[in-house]
Structure formats: C-alpha cells, structure tokens
Amino acid sequence: MSIKPVLKMGDPRLLEVARKVEKFRTPELEALICDMHETMEALDGAGLAAPQIGVGLQVVIFGVKRNPRYPDAEDVPYTVLVNPVLTPLTKNMEQGWEGCLSVPGMRGVVPRFAKVRYQGLDQYGKTIDRSVDGFHARVVQHECDHLQGILYPMRMTDFRTFGFTDVLFPDHAPMAE
Ligand code: NI
Fold first, then answer.
1. For the segment 5-52, what is each residue's pLDDT rounded down to a tens digit?
2. Fewest beta carbons less than 10 Å away: which of 29, 81, 131, 145?
3. What is the whole-number distance in angstroms between the Cα of residue 1 and the centre of ligand 1?
4. What is the pLDDT of residue 152?
C-alpha cells in the first residue's frame, strides 16, 4: 500500500459525484482504505475522501486525536465510512475554520449544521449510525461533501475569511480537512 498524490482544486475529478460501494471485504476496497489511511497520516489531515486520491467511490475516513498543535480541536474517533447518508438534526449553522488537503495552504470560514446524524457502513459492511455535533459534525459534513463534488470554498459565504494559512495564522493554524 502507498501514499497517494492528493488531487488539487481545479482537477475535474474533484467535482464528480462518487458511486456507491457495492461489494465489501474485497482486496480492492481494503487496498483503497489502506492507501487513504496512509495518505491522511502522512499529510497530517483530519479526514480524506476517496475522490481526493482519484477514486470515485463513496468512501471517507476521518479521525482526530487530541494534539497539542490543535488545542481547540475535539477528539473525533477514527472512522471509515462507506455510502454515507447525512441528516441535519438542527437548522442552526455554525461558522468555523476549515482547510482541505485538496486546497493546500489555505483556510476559510465555512457554515455547517451544528448537529448531524450520519448513517452508513464501515469497511466490513457493518452499520454505523451516529448523531454528532461540534468539530465531529463539521468534519463529516466536509468529507461527505467531497462525495458530491463539493469543496469547502463552494460552501463559503464570506470570502473575506478566505486566505493563506501562514498569513491568517502565523503561529498555529486550525486543523485542515
Ligand atoms: Ni477536503
């Protein structure tokens, strides 16, 4: 398995709608998830969607361990989520900083639903059904957007907050992805 190049904004593959995974426990799916995991770890991201490494399937991974570099980021359990369905549990939107491995070196403020329920399957086809809020909810919405061909700048409402990470945050930047 290997670290894959991450597609950057401008690549038309990032704008496609991903297909559902039909078969579980296949070597192809296992290899994909392994590559995604290695790539996310190598780039120190909070999440990654399969289309970002050029695979148009509904697979996302995410997870954040408490990290002194990101004192504000809450713990998010490491999760492999396949064929996800997202349901907002509130109309409340929260503004928060986001970055994306496909938009390197940038950050922007993005409105997201404060609480969501997500349902889907893990890599073995086992059901996942969680209701979450805060940073966990933000990360899931960001990753699931990738499966619809949506990048976070397309969700932004105030472009005055869009900028280069090192200029916006000379000391330490909020978590990307
Ligand atoms: Ni992203």
1. 999 999 999 999 999 999 999 999 999 999 999 999 999 999 999 999
2. 131
3. 22
4. 98
- Residues annotated as part of the active site: 143
CA triple 36-42-45, angle to 5 deg = 75
Distance separating the N- and C-terminal Cα atoms of the chain:
22
What pTM does this model have? 0.95
Residue of 41, 45, 52, 47 whose CA lies nearest to 18: 52
Give dist(CA 172, CA 81) in Å, integer. 29
What is the CATH topology of the domain spanning 12-167?
A: Peptide Deformylase (3.90.45)
- 63, 71, 72, 68: which is closest to 41 by C-alpha? 63
Distance 156 CA to ligand 1 centre (A): 13
Ligand 1 centre from 77 Cα, in Å?
18
CA of 144 to the centre of ligand 1 (A): 9
Supply φ then ψ for residue 150, to 5 degrees. -110, 125
